[in-house]
């Protein structure tokens, strides 16, 4: 359960968004410049709203009226960026283990194996990010975020930097993730077809405002 | 050319000791300052930046004289340190290390600052979303990615420290076995009628050390670039 009600002014651009989502995958849909990334950065805690509140599973992570702002590193929210952002000085195995180390979580070999198998990244473990293809990088980024055991997973155009062929390569993994990983997701995209396949609920953004919310049919 | 004499060895070893201590002590300060200059905006930043670079353009004899005024036994800081902590810089090898550390500081800071500035800050954001508190982000992402720059800065700073002359001789004089480094030994030798051969040997050693340091710094800089690209 995610409840967002925020305002943010960034130069000329103003964002004013309010929505609640119960869905397993909340699709955040809008053209580029509609404020999707700004909104997701606020949910992640990387950006502070000027006014408003963000509540995840009953836990208030932002409330400007009460002076609450939980920093990103204490939110337990996974974030998969469009450009993967794997740590270049660490190999794949170390990248995957990073969130567990930072959160002082115990090793969970069963869970690690499940996610590594789900994403098919076992063979990449010893490689450096520079030696991975774009699709492989994105799968490792997904695994890295999931292995930090987040209570919510944010995906900001995770297929945006990939060509058509690569997109089709990753999509099945995302569908499996939705059905098997058991982590609610917020999936940002400007591609209606992508969201139709993945999302269970849609929040439509236009020029910093929520224009409609509802099932996948609002995309048509 | 004949072999290196024990007096020359004393100067060489002293230079190495002074330069190594100066570099090791200055490095943590250099990293902190480089980070501050690369990542923070604050009042007086350009002033601080200028202050760090001052030893590069100020006549070394002025820096040495200022050190003498400040850290000499009657100096404000020097008097306090001598009376309460028993630390004396004036006319000691520790003073040579202090002079070398300050003179080489701009060269130490610069590559570190450049390598921190070259790091993609979005990687630090990613670390934060994975649960790393700011100091952990620094230790696990920023510093490892800047490491080749840190090493390059240390090598350059070391090379500068080992060759430092003006500030050192002004601050701690030229005492064989205590403050006579390679540079001040060469200075003394070329003023002695038959010192040419000895001076020549020390000159060659200086050139080898400086050249070696520059090549090492260049190599570290190239490593830094490769590291940032994840190869």
Which labels suit this protein?
heterodimer; A: 220 residues; alpha/beta; Rossmann fold; 6-stranded mixed sheet; 5-stranded antiparallel sheet; 6 helices; 11 strands; 31% helix; 28% strand; globular; B: 231 residues; mainly alpha; MetI-like fold; 10 helices; 0% strand; transport (chain B); cell membrane (chain B)
Please tell me about this protein's structure.
The complex is a heterodimer of chains A (220) and B (231). Chain A is an alpha/beta fold and 220 residues long. Chain A has 6 helices and 11 strands. Chain A has one domain: 3-Layer(aba) Sandwich (Rossmann fold), CATH 3.40.50.300. Helices cover 31% and strands 28% of the residues of chain A. In chain A, the strands form 2 sheets. In chain A, strands 7-8-9-3-10-11 form a 6-stranded mixed beta sheet, with helices on both faces. A 5-stranded antiparallel beta sheet of chain A has the order 2-1-4-5-6, covered by helices on one side. In chain A, strand 8, helix 5 and strand 9 form a beta-alpha-beta unit. The mean pLDDT of chain A is 91. With 231 residues, chain B is mainly α. Chain B has a single domain, classed as MetI-like fold, CATH 1.10.3720.10. Chain B is globular. The termini of chain B are far apart. Classes of the chains: A alpha/beta (220), B mainly alpha (231).
């Amino acid at each position: 359960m995610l409840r967002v009600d925020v305002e943010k002014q960034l130069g000329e651009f103003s964002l004013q968004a309010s929505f609640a989502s119960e869905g397993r995958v909340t699709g955040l849909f809008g053209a580029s410049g509609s404020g999707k990334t700004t909104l997701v950065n606020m949910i992640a805690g990387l950006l502070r709203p000027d006014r408003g509140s963000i509540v995840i599973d009953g836990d208030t992570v932002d409330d400007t009226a009460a002076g609450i702002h939980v920093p990103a590193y204490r939110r337990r929210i996974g974030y998969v960026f469009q450009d993967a952002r794997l740590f270049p000085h660490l190999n794949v195995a170390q990248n995957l283990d990073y969130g567990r180390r930072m959160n002082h979580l115990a090793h969970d070999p069963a869970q690690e194996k499940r996610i590594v198998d789900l994403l098919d990244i076992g063979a990449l473990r010893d490689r450096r990010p520079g030696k991975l293809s774009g699709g492989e990088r994105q799968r490792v980024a997904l695994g890295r975020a999931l292995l930090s055991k987040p209570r919510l997973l944010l995906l900001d155009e995770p297929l945006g930097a990939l060509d058509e062929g690569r997109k089709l390569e990753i999509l099945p993994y995302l569908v499996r993730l939705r059905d098997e990983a058991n982590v609610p997701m917020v999936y940002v995209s400007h591609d209606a077809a992508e969201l139709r396949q993945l999302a269970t609920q849609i929040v439509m953004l236009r020029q910093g405002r929520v224009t409609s919310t509802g099932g996948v049919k609002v995309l048509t | 050319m004949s072999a290196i004499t024990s007096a020359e060895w004393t100067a060489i070893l002293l230079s190495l000791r002074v330069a190594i201590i100066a570099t090791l002590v200055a490095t943590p300060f250099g990293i902190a300052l480089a980070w501050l200059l690369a990542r923070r905006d604050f009042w007086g930043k350009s002033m601080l930046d200028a202050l760090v670079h001052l030893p590069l353009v100020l006549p070394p004899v002025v820096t040495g004289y200022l050190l003498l005024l400040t850290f000499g036994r009657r100096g404000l800081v020097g008097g306090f340190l001598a009376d309460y902590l028993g630390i004396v810089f004036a006319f000691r090898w520790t003073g040579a290390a202090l002079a070398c550390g300050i003179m080489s500081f701009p060269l130490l800071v610069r590559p570190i600052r450049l390598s921190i500035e070259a790091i993609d800050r979005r990687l630090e954001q990613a670390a934060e979303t994975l649960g790393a508190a700011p100091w952990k982000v620094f230790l696990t992402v920023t510093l490892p990615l800047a490491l080749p720059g840190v090493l390059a800065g240390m090598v350059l700073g070391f090379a500068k420290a080992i060759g430092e002359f003006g500030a050192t001789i002004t601050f701690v004089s030229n005492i064989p076995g205590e403050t006579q480094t390679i540079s001040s030994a060469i200075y003394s030798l070329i003023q002695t009628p038959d010192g040419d051969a000895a001076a020549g040997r020390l000159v060659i050693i200086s050139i080898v050390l400086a050249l070696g340091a520059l090549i090492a710094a260049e190599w570290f800089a190239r490593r830094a670039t490769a590291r940032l690209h994840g190869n």
